[in-house]
């Protein structure tokens, strides 16, 4: 079974940084597009960043220049480095895996990120 385990969330001051991590097991990591989504209370879930098997990345306009997504194929993990955090970044962040060969999609349980003074 495919499992995604997230870590790294927490409470941080505006302007601070956090690094989220997601470990994937039970699937072929190298065949998967990995992504981070987030959902704030009362809002729809939105796509934050993606990385393809080839290493290409894309970002939402709201996080460009502040967030960096990366993958470690040897460890079957993906990370989201978040710098210069703002209160509007407060949300539950979800790791997502899309295996492009099987078309199977998996979600993590989410980790809370709170940016507040």
List keywords for this structure.
single chain; 117 residues; mainly beta; 7-stranded mixed beta sheet; 4-stranded antiparallel beta sheet; 11 strands; globular
Write the layout of secondary structure elements.
Elements: E1 3-7, E2 10-12, E3 18-25, E4 32-39, E5 46-51, E6 57-59, E7 67-72, E8 77-82, E9 91-99, E10 105-107, E11 111-115
Parallel strand pairs: 2-11
Antiparallel strand pairs: 1-3, 3-8, 4-5, 4-9, 5-6, 7-8, 9-10, 9-11
Walk me through the structure.
With 117 residues, the chain is mainly beta. It is 0% helix and 53% strand. The protein contains no helices and eleven strands. Strands 2, 4, 5, 6, 9, 10 and 11 form a seven-stranded mixed sheet that branches. A four-stranded antiparallel sheet has the order 1-3-8-7, with no helix packed on it. Strand 4 (32-39) and strand 5 (46-51) form a beta hairpin. It is globular, with a radius of gyration of 14 Å. It starts with a strand and ends with a strand. The relative contact order is 0.33.
């Amino acid at each position: 079974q495919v499992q995604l385990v997230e870590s790294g969330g927490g409470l941080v001051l505006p302007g601070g940084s956090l690094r989220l991590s997601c470990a994937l097991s039970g699937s072929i990591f190298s065949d998967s597009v990995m992504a981070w989504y987030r959902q704030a209370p009362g809002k729809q879930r939105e796509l934050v960043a993606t990385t393809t098997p080839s290493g290409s990345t894309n970002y939402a306009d709201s996080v460009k220049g502040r967030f960096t997504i990366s993958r470690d194929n040897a460890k079957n993990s993906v990370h989201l480095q978040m710098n210069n955090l703002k209160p509007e970044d407060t949300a539950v962040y979800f790791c997502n895996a899309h295996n492009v060969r099987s078309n199977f999609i998996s979600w993590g349980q989410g980790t809370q990120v709170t940016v507040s003074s």
